[in-house]
Each structure stands twice: as C-alpha cells, then as structure tokens.
C-alpha cells in the first residue's frame, strides 16, 4: 500500500534540501492515535493543492504530534480537462456518499445545486452545516484515495448560477433520461472545463432543462438504466476520466 496522506496547513518545503515538518492538531492526532504511525514509517503531507512532501516519521511526540523527515517534494499539475459535477441535493446522507465516491473517482469540483424538485433544501444554519459536511467528506476521501488535490466544494448554486457555469465550460452536459445521445459518444475537449449536471431523484424540471440548453448543455444518457442521484455522478465521472485519458 502507498504511504498514507495527511493534510497540512503549513508551508511545504521547496525541495531544495533536507527539511523536517511537524504534523499536529487533528491531523497529528489521527496519524498518531488512529493510524498509529511510528518512527520509520512512510508518510505524505499535502497542501491539498497539488504538492506533497514525501518522507518518514522521525519522531512521535505525545498523542497528537509527529516530526516528518522530508525525503522528496513532488507537485502535480492541475488535472486537464477539469471535471466539475453539479450535484442536486439528495435526501439524508446520500449527498455525502456522492461526494465521497466522486472524490475517490477523481472529480475536481462539486457544486451543490438546489434544484426545483429537491426535497432537501439548504437554508440558514442547517445549510451551512450540510456544506461543511460535504467539504469535510471531500477532504477525507481525498486523503483516503491518496490525492494531492482536494476537490473544491463550492457554495450552493441556483439554477441561474449553474447555467452561467455551464455557459463558460468547454463541454457542458446534463444527465437526463430524455437524452438521445450517449455520454460515451460525446465530443470531449482535451483542456478546459467539463461540467456535468446530475439532477435530483424527481428529475430535472422542464424549465431547468430549457435554461441549461440555452447555456449550451445538451441532455445525455449514461446507459439503458436510470441511476440514483447519489451514484450517477460517480459513474459518469469514471466514464469521462477514461475517455479523456486521465485514467489512461
């Protein structure tokens, strides 16, 4: 298994020479008390923005602090094309499931969308708490899947805001059962943003489809079956990552 990944808020070395880093706080506590890392074990510290310091644990201090001797620093360029999934708000914890699996698959950004037919609505303190859960889920899933890039989870968007996002994309699409074209045959760009909309369990409303079509987003289908909103984005992302060459 590859070395476990932890997120650090401090600056990472530039790779110009020997360096040591401290991992403490919640991440240090997880590394020491949960993962039980010990001296000599490999570890990766990342800033979540494409850079990772690869090293070994040189000291464990208490229950929430360890020292890492950095062996190398590596940086990954931003993935291209960039894949954004606009995710309609599912019921219960299905939203966190969608965020988790899309992050593990390789999605670069996730946009919470309050669609007309969403039963769940994010308002006030409840909405802020739900957004925090999505962001925490993305962070933990990125670590679990050994990613150096943590997906962005944006502020919730209205249909009008989603339409503007789609209009600026290199490729824009909506997963919908009325689509006559398979996503597997859609023309994909080599660079730029791919933005895909996943509707709620009740489906994308006609007025939303019209707004998205006006922004240049056509309806596409994944296959002969209809997936749940919490799994459709992950299945579509896997297809896009394969076709774009990012899984090559």
TrEMBL record:
Keyword Cell inner membrane recorded: no
GO biological process: rRNA base methylation
Entries under InterPro entries matching the protein: Alpha/beta_knot_MTases (IPR029028), PUA-like_sf (IPR015947), RsmE (IPR006700), RsmE_MTase_dom (IPR046886), RsmE_PUA-like (IPR046887), tRNA_m1G_MTases_N (IPR029026)
Catalytic activity field: uridine(1498) in 16S rRNA + S-adenosyl-L-methionine = N(3)-methyluridine(1498) in 16S rRNA + S-adenosyl-L-homocysteine + H(+)
One term under GO cellular component: cytoplasm
SUPFAM superfamilies: alpha/beta knot, PUA domain-like
Sorted UniProt keywords: Cytoplasm, Methyltransferase, rRNA processing, S-adenosyl-L-methionine, Transferase
Known function: Specifically methylates the N3 position of the uracil ring of uridine 1498 (m3U1498) in 16S rRNA. Acts on the fully assembled 30S ribosomal subunit.
Record protein name field: Ribosomal RNA small subunit methyltransferase E
Organism encoding this protein: Streptomyces harbinensis
């Amino acid at each position: 298994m590859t070395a476990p990944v932890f997120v650090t808020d401090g600056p990472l070395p530039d790779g110009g020479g020997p360096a040591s880093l401290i991992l403490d706080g919640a991440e240090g506590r997880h590394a020491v008390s949960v993962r039980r890392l010990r001296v000599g074990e490999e570890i990766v510290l990342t800033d979540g923005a494409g850079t990772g310091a690869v090293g070994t644990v040189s000291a464990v201090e208490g229950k929430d602090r360890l020292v890492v001797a950095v062996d190398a620093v590596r940086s990954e360029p931003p993935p291209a094309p960039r894949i954004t999934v606009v995710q309609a708000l599912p019921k219960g914890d299905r939203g966190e499931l969608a965020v988790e699996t899309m992050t593990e698959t390789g999605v670069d950004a996730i946009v919470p969308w309050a669609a007309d037919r969403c039963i769940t609505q994010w308002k006030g303190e409840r909405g802020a708490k739900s957004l925090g859960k999505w962001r925490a889920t993305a962070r933990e899933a990125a670590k679990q899947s050994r990613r150096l890039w943590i997906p962005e989870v944006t502020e919730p968007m209205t249909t009008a805001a989603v339409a503007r996002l789609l209009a600026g994309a290199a490729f824009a699409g909506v997963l919908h059962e009325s689509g006559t074209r398979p996503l597997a045959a859609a023309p994909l760009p080599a660079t730029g943003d791919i933005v895909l909309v996943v509707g709620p369990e009740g489906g994308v409303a006609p007025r939303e489809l019209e707004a998205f079509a006006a922004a240049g987003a056509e309806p596409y289908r994944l296959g002969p079956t209809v997936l749940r909103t919490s799994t459709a984005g992950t299945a579509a992302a896997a297809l896009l990552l394969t076709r774009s060459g990012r899984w090559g």
